[in-house]
Amino acid sequence: MRSLALLLTSLILISGVAAAQKPTDYYNRGVELLDKRDYDAAIECFTQALEHKPDYSQALYSRGVAKRRKGDIDGAISDWTHMIEMDARYPEAYLARGMAREAKGDRDRALIDYSRAIQVNPKFATAYYNRAVILRAKGELDNAIADCTMSIKFAPTFANAYVIRGLSLADKHNIDAALADFDKSIELNPQMQSPITTAETRFNQKAMWTRPWPITTKLSNWIQNRQTHISIVVWRGRKR
Question: ∠ CA 100-109-87 to the nearest 5 degrees?
Answer without folding.
Answer: 75
